[in-house]
Design a protein that fits this description.
Largest sheet of chain A: 7 strands, parallel
Number of helices of chain A: 5
Oligomer: homotetramer
Distance between the termini of chain A: 25 Å
Shape of chain A: globular
Strand content of chain A: 15-25%
Strand order of the largest sheet of chain A: 4-3-2-1-5-6-7
Largest interface: A-D, 21 and 21 residues
Order of helices and strands of chain A: EHEHEEHEHEEH
Structural class of chain A: alpha/beta
Number of strands of chain A: 7
Helix content of chain A: 25-40%
């Protein structure tokens, strides 16, 4: 008999070079805590919040899945364990949501908002850390609380 | 030489039997106005706001495209001119956004929010009529104003 | 009560400038015959076989749906009634198959083969006209026979 | 500097309980050889050829990615390291192809044929082992030769 499979938790948030340092350190702590608790981290595979979360998870021995918008695995950040190059553009946001049991949103713009909305629509738990204040999103005070809520 | 192709405008909003009557009449007026101005109406093809918008458009001689979540065209409301059965579930929301030049959101829940977010992310114009108050969404006072904004 | 909705038939085949003239005239005849018999024509929306089929259908008063690989409706040929810009690349082949009740393949390369295979996998009728000789594909001798088989 | 990322190779073939024993042992040997040579194995995540390939890869210490048609990770076979539940049905075949640098087809029906066709269309290397005889597919005599061709 195989052991119960691990939870998959998506960490979503902005990419790009302009993400605030506090969000990056929050994302890294979320990734680290998810790995410590045995969860597989799913994300969009790029830089910014996604990279920080992956770095935290990998440093703690975790597995990270990057579901990329483009068709080339080389777009993945260096901390992605397994990259899925979808070529779907922003439609891959829906795959991130489907792949995960729960979402932790760290900051984020409109792409992140689309993921929050799709997860709420699908009835999945969404935890926010400095992210959108949408009804149905549980607001967490810090990374540990966010992960605890996501895995509850 | 072919004439300039018509604009495609998505009308997004809630399905189901519980949509408020005022939203339905707004949606119908939006559909009617879009048709009157020569736009093709794109929507999710189901009931509620989608059906009301299609009914308005067809009554005014317009063309309506229903991009369905399921695999069967029979899910389309009776006012859909052309139905595309995607079998993609909520991922079809992203196709509605891609297919359209602009969005008019009439009320709506989390599915609608995902469409608003994807459209803003793609840099498309989003007009709201009693819908989500998200930065970047232009709020319209009535259906005619909503359509005028969407087609500007 | 609404009348029974029309059948949707996909016409698939190669795009590009190098398609043999005989295939183009076959495709045009298939489109024309589909329109004459009241079917909606679904295709990939581009040039070559797709354009020829749309031209035939439109000349006979039919409706044509172009499910495009790219994100811009301007890629559609001039005979597409309704264009859906998917941005999915070749994954849109699967949407063409899902959207249709049956397929007519006119010549074609590997993209066409993927559509034939997906349609057979989905249990849909596939008729070939100078196309791949795959078990399960009904071979037709001419366009009228192909359409008759597809609509049987 | 990170080391060069590993190649990703898809192993495609039939699922279900009726796959011939010889194909299963071939698939298992392909999986084992891919893992031994450091490749990540991508597949559809289900049973039959997919499960046999994953079992071979995991026994040799490799990583296996299952890109599932349904929305539930519990559909994955027990030898999948990372499961992506897409909910796309057969459209996920296109994601398997996109995710991989090359394909090894072991036997297979129409779903497999769609993957072969999409990979050839995308210009990726396709190696067949008792699979479809399509122009462009390299026929291999045994699992080791198939893997050597795929990784060339």
């Amino acid at each position: 008999m195989s052991p119960p499979s691990p939870p998959y938790v998506a960490v979503v948030g902005a990419g790009g070079p302009d993400v605030a340092g506090e969000l990056l350190s929050d994302a890294e702590a979320v990734g680290s805590e998810l790995a410590r608790r045995g969860a597989v981290l799913v994300c969009g595979g790029l830089d910014g919040v996604m990279e920080a979360a992956c770095r935290g998870a990998r440093a703690a021995g975790g597995t990270t899945v990057g579901i990329l918008p483009g068709s080339s695995r080389s777009d993945a950040n260096a901390y992605v364990s397994v990259a899925v190059a979808t070529g779907l553009g922003e439609l891959r946001n829906g795959l991130i949501v489907r792949s995960a049991d729960a979402l932790v949103a760290v900051g984020g713009g409109h792409g992140t908002l689309s993921e929050i909305a799709l997860a709420l629509k699908a009835g999945k738990r969404v935890v926010g850390l400095g992210s959108w204040q949408i009804e149905g999103v549980e607001q967490a005070g810090d990374p540990a609380e966010a992960v605890a809520s996501a895995l509850r």
